[in-house]
Amino acid sequence: MLLDLVAKLGRTTLGLIRAAGSLTLFALSGLSHIVRPPFYGRVFLSTFLETGFFSLPVVALTALFSGGVIALQSYTGFAQYHVQSAIAGIVVLAVTRELGPVLAGLMVAGRVGAAMAAEIGTMRVTDQVDALTTLSTNPMKYLVAPRLLAGIIALPLLVLVADVLGVAGGFTVSVVKLGFSPHAYITATLNSVKVIDVTVGLVKAALFGFLIALMGCYYGYNSKGGAEGVGTATTSAVVAASILLLAFDYLLTDLFFSQ
Amino acid sequence: MTGTLPKIRIRDLHKSFGSKKVLDGINLDVMPGTSFVIIGGSGSGKSVLLRCILGLITPDAGSIEIDGEDMITASPRRQDALRGKIGMLFQNGALFDSLPVWENVTFGLLALKRLNRKDARGHAGSILAQVGLDPTVGELYPSELSGGMQKRVGLARAIAAQPDILFFDEPTTGLDPIMGAVIDGLIVDCVKKLGSTAIAITHDMASAQRIGDEAAMLYKGQLIWQGPASSLMNSGNAMVDQFTHGRREGPITMELRR
């Protein structure tokens, strides 16, 4: 009974180590192909547009409403202590340091990470990945490297937009609903935000973009078993990307901001 | 001496997935210019054998030589070069969904930089004509094509780089008998025109006899018979005869769950 339990634990541990090793090798191989020719500019461009441009509406709306919600909630709490003037600073720090990258990342993970896993997974189960190999094309170079690069570049740009719109959401709610002076709000915002806040947010975004693309490509590339396998790969890619994203968000926050 | 060197030489090839032995000591020589057909039931290891030769699956043991060069021990660069000699028609076409037909057909040529994108569309039209398709088909996407047309486009993609070796994985599966015969005819024409060596795997006996010069039967991971494709229907081997005539009774027993 006890031996069975130990054996099961051992098998699970070995499986986890094997999966971590496989994912690490996949990531290193994908990254190395980013800098080694041939380069597939068309694939990169179409993935970049899909990841960046076509994710703009969902990221913009999420950021706008989140900024507004933070302003409202902060006001509710801060009004008790008569420190409503801190709202502008709270909104801009929350958005640039955390909510911009995290919300944009989660939205892109659901939209683009899932699409990557489904597309590459379908290519895998219909022999299209093998067909690439037979046509003198390395699938890691053609399918994975452009997507990783697109994720790394597109997400920081999306987060810049999210930062601006998140602050705009807080500004709109504070001015229109809570009666703040527009000039005072903007001044407080500019006084509160530092370059490091925005920079760290963008570094987080680049890492999140990489993780989302990596999970989408990894699970898609290793999918098997037809339609069900592709469905499982898609779900796994989104779940794994979301968890990793939040875990790395904590680690980076701890690294840059804990005193 | 070079004339007698097999185009493909396989020696003592083994491959297992877990405890399941799929290839169990395959030995095979395919001479240049020969059209070789491998028959066998579902799950007999035909596709795995083809994928091992292509380097898509790494065998557990044995050797696979293409023009005298071992595919398994070759460097990745040499493997790519050897693969460049091979054109492959996949069972379900394996056309790239996201690309139009013309780009599918010229994909290998563009990858090898033997063609630039400006000329690719026109070139694709001439290759499509070779497989009996109108050049305007080049503007369509794979999802807009019938099964027969997808096979033809897959064939056009396989022959586009004029390879030394052509592989056909179940070329007539899923097609009606007339379309199957049309595809077989196109395969024979293309192989003759290019002077290529061909290996086809199938369990369609009519197709096997139309395509092949020589044939072999794979059963439980072993080649149990080899001979002229014309003698497939009267091979004298009880297993081959049972298989080619589709008899329920005989030495081959199907593992059915009741």
UniProtKB/TrEMBL annotation, chain B:
Domain of life: Bacteria
Protein name: ABC transporter
Domain ABC transporter: 8-245
Entry keyword Flavoprotein: no
Matching InterPro entries: AAA+_ATPase (IPR003593), ABC_transporter-like_ATP-bd (IPR003439), ABC_transporter-like_CS (IPR017871), P-loop_NTPase (IPR027417)
Pfam families per the UniProt record, alphabetical: ABC_tran
Gene3D superfamilies, sorted: P-loop containing nucleotide triphosphate hydrolases
Recorded GO MF terms: ATP binding; ATP hydrolysis activity
Keyword vocabulary terms for this entry: ATP-binding, Nucleotide-binding, Transport
